[in-house]
Design goal:
Jelly Rolls, Arc Repressor Mutant, subunit A, 10-stranded antiparallel sheet, 10 strands, globular
């Protein structure tokens, strides 16, 4: 089985989430979720938050949210809560869905986590003032967008195109080779999703529906997730394209095409990076030696492992082990 990151109550607080006021230290040390959680403030005006987690216990959490225009694509699961006293229900249990909301003033976001909640989502937030400056320019074509972002707390559902769904998938698991290009990679995809969501607010937004997710696109999205999940769950096994093809009942060509279209990387590169991530976690948490971690990641030479490790994470295995 692949190593899934355990997210404690303390780590959620580090992300800005407030646990109940009477939460004891034991609760803060307790695992709350398993999976991956990221929150990146890019050099520009964007914040990109991604979640691919399973809740391990029931919890009520809250955290402050600054004025912003935010786009969310929920790829899997259901997210319920409220902005102050305005409820929202982001339900993607049948198919991926998109939501856009605008907050013109600071609010408190309340979330109810239920044990077993399996959620995969991407959120792109743009600073409120940045959006206002670009929308409030007297252009009548932007009147509907202007009204939406000035309504106080506005929440609306939109149907993302098949390309937007693919971009969201890519943001969940971006390439990790170089921080500079990883940020540019994330920013370019975040901007494109933001533009599509804002465009859906225009009265003449019929063109958005033309690119909306068709059944075959949704099927490919689900197959891509199936491939990714199988790899994650068997990352320490001897994974080959032919073996994956047989297990997942699809041709090697289809397997490679569907995965590359969804995540922007090859199956082999994803396996390689996932093994390096598992090896890094094992060194940091379980104290594996560099030689053991190299073997775990599929490298017979610790030197080759160290080279690949530094190229992906920007630090040496010894530095990672000492953290």
């Amino acid at each position: 089985m692949t190593r899934r990151e355990t997210i404690t109550g303390q780590q959620l607080e580090d992300f800005g989430t407030a646990l109940p006021g009477n939460a004891a230290d034991g609760i803060r040390r307790r695992p709350m979720m398993s999976g991956r959680l990221s929150n990146d403030n890019l050099q520009s005006f964007l914040n990109i938050h991604t979640t691919d987690t399973v809740s391990m216990r029931d919890a009520a959490v809250k955290f402050p949210v600054n004025p912003a225009v935010t786009v969310a694509i929920v790829l899997r699961g259901r997210v319920r809560g409220a902005f102050d006293n305005v409820p929202f229900d982001l339900d993607a249990r049948i198919q991926p869905v998109g939501f856009i909301w605008a907050l013109s003033q600071p609010v408190m976001l309340h979330r109810e986590l239920q044990k077993g909640d399996d959620v995969s989502k991407v959120m792109i937030s743009a600073k409120y003032d940045w959006v206002v400056k670009r929308v409030c320019n007297g252009d009548s074509r932007h009147a509907a967008i202007n009204d939406f972002i000035h309504a106080g707390i506005s929440v609306r559902q939109w149907q993302p195109s098949r390309r937007a769904i693919a971009l969201a998938d890519q943001l969940l698991y971006p390439p990790t080779d170089d921080p500079l290009f990883r940020d540019l990679y994330a920013e370019s995809r975040g901007l494109e999703i933001l533009a599509e969501a804002l465009g859906s607010l225009r009265p003449d937004a019929e063109f958005i529906a033309e690119g909306s997710a068709e059944p075959d696109a949704l099927e490919h999205h689900q197959k891509a997730q199936e491939i990714r999940d199988y790899i994650k769950d068997h990352i320490l096994d001897d994974l080959t394209l032919s073996g994956l093809s047989e297990k997942l009942c699809m041709s090697i060509a289809s397997l490679q095409r569907i995965f590359k279209n969804a995540y922007g990387t090859t199956v082999k590169d994803f396996i390689r990076e996932s093994r390096l991530i598992a090896a890094r976690d094992a060194m940091e948490k379980d104290g594996l030696t560099i030689g053991q971690a190299a073997w775990m990641a599929g490298y017979s030479s610790p030197a080759n492992f160290a080279t690949a490790f530094k190229r992906v994470f920007g630090i040496s295995p010894s530095d990672a082990r000492d953290r």
